[in-house]
Amino acid sequence: MLDLDAYLARIGVGGQPALDQLHRAHVTAIPFENLDPRRGIQVSLELDDLERKLVSDRRGGYCFEQNLLLKAALEGLGAEVEMYLARVRVGSPHGTARPRTHLLLGVQADGTRWHADVGFGHGTLREPIPFGPGGEYEQAGWRHRVVEDGRELVLQSLDQSGEWVDLYGFVPEPVPLIDVVTSNWYTCTYPRSPFVTGLIVSVQRPDGTRESLSDWNGGLSLTEETPTAANVTDVERDEVPRLVATRFGLEATLV
């Protein structure tokens, strides 16, 4: 079982936090990063390994690690949690079918079913939103909504030009852990997976600012975003260890 007290200390909360407080604290405390698969190290989803990496070693991780850790914490607090696998849509032409390489959670808490996700990098939800299609939800200036597209539910975000952008789509049917393990194995070992070939480290600040270091869009750059503006700075490769340490709180030796 998860050492719940250690996890809560890691994200800076105590007692019996509400779902929104827990979610927000996790997002702003634990970086999103792919440093292990980028170095050829397979990602383990065993709870002991997740706890050692993200809690004890104060590392970050990607969606499977982040959301499985959150799931364990929520269950330790008495919530009922289901897992869903999504196809990432952002960054691909409309209608392109990508593999199901994103994990999100459905959480039953306080008499309501919630869409929770602390693992979509710098664009992830800061707080849970009600599960299924509905209204617009503003979080520190960022706006999200869920719409239907055939059998799928699609999480969208309002971009700085005022357009709704698809982030990911998923069929609202819970999946077993073995499906999650399979998707994780593909994501961290497939030779053309962006988590194997590229670099992404990101975090959301408490004030709502998003910061990311990535080469996914071509050149290596450091991006700082607010809901209304973005500042992109080109980065040289030899600067990466210092930035990883100073901007994201990770060990420079990991790069």
Explained architecture:
There is one protein chain. The chain is α+β, with helices and mostly antiparallel strands and 255 residues long. It has eight helices and 13 strands. The chain has helices at 4-11, 19-29, 35-38, 47-56, 63-76, 177-189, 194-197, 240-248; strands spanning 32-33, 80-88, 100-109, 112-116, 129-130, 137-139, 142-149, 152-158, 164-170, 200-204, 210-214, 221-225, 230-234. Helix 4 (47-56) packs across helix 5.
Radius of gyration: 17 Å
Helix/sheet category: alpha+beta
Low-confidence stretches: none
Strand content: 25-35%
Helical coverage, percent range: 25-40%
Topology:
Layout: H1 4-11, H2 19-29, E1 32-33, H3 35-38, H4 47-56, H5 63-76, E2 80-88, E3 100-109, E4 112-116, E5 129-130, E6 137-139, E7 142-149, E8 152-158, E9 164-170, H6 177-189, H7 194-197, E10 200-204, E11 210-214, E12 221-225, E13 230-234, H8 240-248
Antiparallel strand pairs: 1-10, 2-3, 2-9, 3-4, 4-5, 6-7, 7-8, 8-9, 10-11, 11-12, 12-13
Structure, briefly:
This protein is 29% helix and 29% strand. Strand 3 and strand 4 form a beta hairpin. The two termini are 30 Å apart.
